[in-house]
Automatic annotation (TrEMBL):
Keyword tags: Methyltransferase, Signal, Transferase
Name used for this protein in its record: Methyltransferase type 11 domain containing protein
UniProt keyword Acetylation present: no
Record-linked InterPro entries: Methyltransf_11, Methyltransf_Superfamily
Domain Methyltransferase type: 198-318
């Protein structure tokens, strides 16, 4: 009896937690030690840039105590993996279908179109897959290194968007992404005519395709991702150019063929190894929802590599979760709740801890850095590279908060405790 009530409740909670992490789904955690929480960003930025500000003083409380230990044990136990995760996934599918998002048929469609490819592993690339990337992640045992993850990621993002932004229904993901498009422009993102853009950690191309639409003047938009499965699905979607179900098509968004887009399999932290990518050859490099999934030492390498790939005066664009925004900060201040959230993303805690260190590190390398809020929980950052010979201090414009200290964009995410049924509609 208790089981019949408690398990669906926990599954609902797990689903909500998966939903928080748009566009990611979920995963199992490796808890960072207290020692490494005071992050690599911090030590490197101090070493490399004596003139940038120190990280913000607010740090999350230590995660100790009996309740915390019990929760950590539960999250590491088979209960989570074998009972709650499947239930939560079933719930995501049901939520999608209840929002008219055709999860089952969209997945069948893309699986059918890729029947030949998915009977085998994708061709091995020369890229070495780092250890951090080989653990289970986002509810998939093999993380991003599986066909299932690659076939589902766009459908799941659409479902999560519908859950998180009920006022937009099945267009929630579109509204969410649109907020980043506008925020990047507000932060000063520009690309010159015939410019080249690189989308690092492009996944199946959700961010890459938007870049192509938003910057029609760009000559080339390349995407690089470590998962050959994601890249294969991204390439196939671009060939198929399906319509969205809103227009009677089989997919969850409209996809236009675009000969300017090229996807590559490779490690963004070692991107110059790829023969297609040359030093100082890009006008803009995009990192959309990538950094929170990386160990900090890898995130540093990725920012360094982006710097090398950018032309002098080129721009780095970062769109990310903002744990300095009150809505996420409040969740994080609750150690038990955040344990649950953290359990879905191995590096989220350390990322959350070190946002100001990330800003400091970017400031140490770039000439002008501007940060604006994109949603009530996310920021967009545009950093312009130092021109040759420039060695002055970076101009840092942090416009996330107004004069009264309020986050400038209202938090419109569905709150954790709200279900779609009791959400107030405007
Ligand atoms: C949350 S997804 C974001 C995908 C895409 N940018 C978007 O906005 O939908 C993060 C992506 O980063 C990729 N990734 C993680 N580490 C990487 C690395 N070292 N090099 C390239 N891609 C990486 C993952 O495979 C995954 O596709």
């Amino acid at each position: 009896m208790i089981g019949r009530r408690v398990i669906p409740f926990l599954a609902e909670l797990s689903f909500i937690i998966l939903s928080l992490l748009t566009p990611s789904i979920q995963g199992f955690f490796v808890r960072p030690s207290a020692h490494c929480l005071h992050s690599t960003w911090g030590s490197l930025s101090r070493r490399e840039a004596a003139n940038v500000s120190e990280p913000a003083a607010t740090r999350a409380p230590p995660r100790t105590g009996i309740a915390q230990k019990v929760l950590d044990m539960a999250l590491a136990s088979p209960l989570w993996k074998y009972l709650l995760v499947p239930q939560a996934r079933a719930k995501i599918v049901a939520t999608a279908e209840a929002n008219q998002i055709p999860w089952t048929s969209a997945k069948e469609w893309i699986s059918g179109e890729m029947q030949t490819e998915i009977t085998a592993d994708p061709p091995l690339s020369t890229t070495t897959i780092p250890a951090y990337y080989q653990q289970s992640f986002h509810a998939y045992d093999k993380g991003n290194l599986s066909w299932e993850a690659a076939l589902e990621v766009e459908i799941a993002s659409c479902a999560v968007g519908a859950r998180n932004f009920p006022q937009f229904g099945s267009n929630g993901e579109e509204a969410f992404r649109g907020a980043f498009d506008s925020a990047l422009i507000e932060a000063g993102a520009v690309v010159s005519k015939a410019g080249r853009i690189l989308d690092m950690g492009c996944g199946t191309g959700m961010s890459t395709r938007r870049l192509a639409i938003n910057f029609p003047q760009a000559k080339a938009i390349q995407g690089v991702d470590l998962s050959p499965y994601f890249v294969a699905v991204g390439k196939r979607l671009l060939e198929l150019a399906p319509n969205s179900f809103h227009e009677g098509g089989p997919w969850v968004s409209n996809i236009e063929r675009d000969a300017r887009i090229e996807y590559l399999v490779g490690d963004a932290s070692n991107a110059l190894q790829l023969k297609e990518l040359q030093e100082e050859s890009f006008d803009a490099i995009n990192l959309q929802f990538v950094l929170h999934e990386l160990p900090p030492e890898v995130a540093i390498l990725v920012v360094d590599e982006a710097f090398r790939l950018l032309k002098p005066s080129g721009q780095l664009w970062i769109c990310e979760m903002d744990f300095e925004a009150p809505a996420y900060a409040a969740q994080r201040a609750n150690p038990l709740l955040f344990s649950l959230i953290r359990s879905t993303e191995p590096y989220l805690d350390i990322y959350a801890e070190s946002i100001s260190d990330l800003f400091s590190y970017v400031r140490s390398k770039f000439q002008h850095v501007k940060v604006v809020p994109a949603t009530g929980r996310h920021f967009a950052l545009v950093a312009t590279r130092r021109g040759t010979g420039y060695d002055g201090e970076a101009l840092f414009e942090d416009q996330r908060f107004d004069e009264d200290g309020n986050y400038r964009v209202e938090d419109t995410h569905l709150q954790l405790w709200e279900s779609k049924g009791n959400q107030k509609h405007n």
